[in-house]
Design a protein that fits this description.
This protein has 2 domains: 32 residues; 84 residues, no CATH class. Helix content is 37%, strand content 25%.
Length: 127
């Protein structure tokens, strides 16, 4: 009877030690790459009348090198270490082989025109 009690305590201690190891030791050795978080900027951009007018008037995908007008809006909110491609009622097929974050919003139009469009912002860390 006494040996069964001791074995039960040994098993419980093993479970506790394993639990502590899994929670505290293993997460410290998951890698050295810093994980960046998604930057949700379309919720801020959709409030700007100029951006809404651009979305209503255009369609297609634009990257950071193609359109200076969209750059003025996006680069104000997107950190400098990110590159991006923004698609209006379209889906990009020319994205780099990296970890890509996607932010999307539906813009119904501007003050004078109802023209719903889906805007997708694909952004990733440069380099």
């Amino acid at each position: 009877m006494k040996t069964a009690y001791i074995k039960t305590i040994e098993v419980m201690m093993a479970v506790v030690f394993t639990f502590v190891f899994v929670l505290y030791v293993i997460p410290r050795f998951t890698g050295t790459e810093e994980v960046k978080e998604n930057v949700e900027i379309l919720t801020e951009l959709e409030k700007l009348p100029g951006f809404r007018n651009f979305v209503v008037a255009n369609k297609g995908c634009y990257n950071s090198l193609q359109n200076e007008e969209i750059n003025t809006y996006v680069e104000e909110y997107l950190p400098a270490e990110y590159d991006y491609e923004i698609c209006i009622d379209d889906i990009s097929t020319d994205l780099p082989d990296k970890n890509i974050f996607i932010d999307s919003v539906i813009i119904a139009g501007n003050i004078s025109e109802y023209n719903p469009k889906t805007v997708r912002l694909f952004h990733w860390i440069k380099g």
